Structures are given as structure tokens and as C-alpha cells.
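Example for tutorial group B:
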């Protein structure tokens, strides 16, 4: 959560606190201002501290999911510098392209393999079952424009519940993405090559 969000949350909480005081008929005057201010601050801290801890925990889990491969390759360093989101482009049997943003987990054994958990009914899962060729592009780092992309990638979608449970037991990153795998598809994306780019450096092709 950014500072702006904390301020917005504090203002909303303070207003709701004051409205609650007025609603119950508490005598609102300057003599009670210090007591009311203390109540607002204490109540806000009680609300925000657990929320902040849960947010940090979620971000840490997501970071671990995408950064489990800690090899000191250039590609691994790029992944560790970026959030665990990417754009995924899929194509159906008629050649119609569908683009969506996904959360991914990187394989701990192969740095060019990624896992995605998605509802089995999504367009991307259906498209991949019809056409295994996909393209991906990461988000970019704000200051340097660092990013990676690939149109040399293939994917497969696993929808059978038994196969998904077996895969999840072997690959813990999958359940870090989503603990509830019922009616889900696990998409496995494999990159044959990727392009690393930034505002400062020339594009570099990484082959796997």
C-alpha cells in the first residue's frame, strides 16, 4: 500500500468514526477533542496494522513464487527485478488473438518454464487447448524500462483434476498462486527464447 492509500484510508476512517459518534449522540465539543482524536488514531492503527501485515505477506508469497529460481543468469536477474505479472497472448483455431494479464510462478528447475492458474472456463485456457503457440510480455520497470518478452513460446493447459493435484503436489509454486484448484486449469508456458530490453540498453536475445 502506498502512502496516498494510507492517507485516504485514514480520512475515510476518521469520517466514519465521527459519524458514528454523532449517530449515538456522544457530546461532541472541544473538551472531548483530544479523546476523540486518540480514539481515531488508535482505531486506525488497529485497522491498518493487520491489513499491512497481510499485504506484506501476500507480496512476499508472490515474490517467492516468481523468484524461486535464483540462478545468477541475466534472465533470472531481470525476473527478480520485475513484478510477477505478464501479458499472455493466445490464439484460437480461427486465428483470433486474445490478450490478458496473468500472475505467474517460475519453475525452480527451469528458468524458461512458468506456471499459471486460471479458471478452466477462461478464453486463454480454451485457446491453449486448441493452439499451443503463445506470446508473452512482462510489465516494465518504471525508471529503466527493463522488461522481457517472447513470441517464441508454447503452452499447454491441464484441466483434469487428478493431473492438477498430482502436479501441485510436485510443484509447490502452483498452490502459492491459488490454494483452491477446483475447476481450475494449470497452464505451463515454455519459452524457447526471450528478448530483454530497456530504455538504456540494446535488446538482447536469450535462448534456452
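The residue assignment follows.
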Amino acid at each position: 500500500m502506498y502512502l496516498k492509500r494510507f492517507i485516504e484510508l485514514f480520512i475515510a476512517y476518521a469520517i466514519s468514526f465521527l459519524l458514528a459518534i454523532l449517530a449515538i449522540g456522544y457530546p461532541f465539543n472541544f473538551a472531548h477533542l483530544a479523546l476523540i482524536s486518540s480514539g481515531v488514531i488508535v482505531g486506525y492503527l488497529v485497522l491498518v496494522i493487520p491489513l499491512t501485515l497481510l499485504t506484506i505477506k501476500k507480496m512476499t508469497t508472490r515474490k517467492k513464487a516468481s523468484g524461486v529460481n535464483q540462478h545468477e543468469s541475466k534472465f533470472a536477474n531481470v525476473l527478480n527485478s520485475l513484478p510477477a505479472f505478464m501479458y499472455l497472448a493466445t490464439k484460437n483455431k480461427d486465428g483470433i488473438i486474445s490478450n490478458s494479464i496473468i500472475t505467474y510462478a517460475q519453475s525452480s528447475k527451469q528458468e524458461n518454464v512458468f506456471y499459471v492458474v486460471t479458471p478452466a472456463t477462461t478464453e486463454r485456457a480454451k485457446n491453449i487447448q486448441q493452439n499451443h503457440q503463445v506470446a508473452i510480455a512482462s510489465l516494465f520497470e518504471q525508471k529503466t524500462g527493463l522488461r522481457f518478452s517472447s513470441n517464441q513460446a508454447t503452452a499447454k493447459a491441464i484441466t483434469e483434476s487428478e493431473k492438477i493435484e498430482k502436479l501441485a503436489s510436485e510443484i509447490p509454486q502452483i498452490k502459492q498462486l491459488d490454494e483452491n484448484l477446483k475447476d481450475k486449469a494449470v497452464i505451463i508456458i515454455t519459452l524457447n527464447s526471450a528478448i530483454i530490453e530497456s530504455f538504456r540498453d540494446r535488446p538482447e536475445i536469450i535462448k534456452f
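The helical segments are 3-23, 33-66, 74-81, 123-130, 161-170, 173-177. Compare this with the pattern of hydrophobic and polar residues in the output above.
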